[in-house]
Amino acid sequence: MTAKVFIDGEAGTTGLQILERLSAREDITLVQVEHERRKDPVARAEAFAEADVAILCLPDAAAIEAVTLAGDCRIIDASTAHRIADGWVYGMPELPGQVEAIKGASRVANVGCFATGAISLVRPLRDAGLMAEDAPVVLTGTSGYTGGGNALIAEFDQGTAPDFFLYATAQAHKHVPEIMRYGRLTRKPAFQPAVGNYAQGMIVQMHLHREALPGTPSKAQIEDTLRAFYATARFVDVVDAPARLDPQAVNGTNRMEISVHGNESAGILTVTATLDNLGKGASGTAVQNLNLMIGAPEDAGL
Fold first, then answer.
1. Which residue ranges form the domains of the chain, and what is each CATH number?
2. CA-to-CA distance for 110 and 277, rounded, in angstroms?
3. Are 281 and 202 in contact (CB under 8 A)?
4. Is the pLDDT of residue 254 over 90?
């Protein structure tokens, strides 16, 4: 038995990466629309009707429209549109209970790239009682420019973009609502993202004052909490803190590496997550969710 999969938006950055991961698989048959008809609602509706699962790699407004065309087809939405919407299962398998929820879901909202790193750092400490729900969380992060889509990619290709820049400085980044909900936070975290002059790869950082945390946990306690939380996670490793962090270290994979840094005597620690923003932060997790939905091994194609 093979599963029929339609990638709506397969020509985009995320869509192409998903297509690459699925093309050689014998357990999947790709349902495709001719290039010249890729925006034709009739052609797309026919593809949805034929497919068992569709993966939406579209801007938010287009993803919302696509759901109305999809009928009973099961959906994985890689956009931001449905991540905190009622009736949608959050597509982050590493969270407690999410594997079983994703397996049975008809609507799955794929986790965002920065949100993948941020929630992965916050949620274990929240669940262990080492961070209060109203903690003043401070997050920073740097991503490769592919996370900005075709327009930003063109700027870097043309040499008109700076080598490094901050954005979303008004503290209204689109991933913050999902970070709050699935990080189990009631206070809005401070989050400052940046883009570097490299194609893909990402580091997300959470900066902690130990005395502001319940029980003033040590660096070792935080590491042990993270290791216990991810003990059975297929794609997450808690590693010893390297002297230097390379945002491109796990590119081309669905892996994420988490480490704890800092001077304990100074009372300040930084917890980091390194991942591929187009892999674990987008297409890789979409394929991981797809595998769960169709009953394939979680790591198939990854």
1. 3-111+282-294 (3.40.50.720), 113-278 (3.30.360.10)
2. 13
3. yes
4. yes
Distance of CA 159 to CAs 164, 194, 197, Å? 12, 18, 10
Tell me how far apart the alpha carbons of residues 235 and 297 are, in angstroms, rounded to a whole number: 13
Contacts of residue 100, defined as CB under 8 A and 6 or more positions apart, other chains included, come to none
- Name 246's Cβ contacts closer than 8 Å, sequence gap at least 6: 201, 274
d(CA 297, CA 301) in angstroms, rounded, equals 9
Quick check: 72 pLDDT over 80? yes
Neighbouring residues of 242: CB distance < 8 A, sequence distance ≥ 6: 259
Angle (CA) 260-97-206 rounded to 5° is: 20
In one-letter notation, the amino acid at residue 100 is E
Q: pLDDT value at position 58?
A: 95
Is the full-model pTM beyond 0.85? Answer: yes
Reported as a single tens digit per residue, the pLDDT across 7-17 is 999 988 899 99
Sole residue written with tokens 């959906």: 75
pLDDT at position 252 over 80: yes
Residues 6+ apart with CB under 8 A from 210: 216, 217, 218, 264, 267, 268, 269
The two structure tokens encoding residue 302: 């990854």
Active site residues: 113
Q: Name 215's Cβ contacts closer than 8 Å, sequence gap at least 6.
A: 129, 130
**Token pair recorded at residue 58:** 């579209």
Q: Does residue 110 register a pLDDT over 90?
A: yes
pLDDT (0 to 100) of residue 1: 76
- Which amino acid makes up residue 92? M
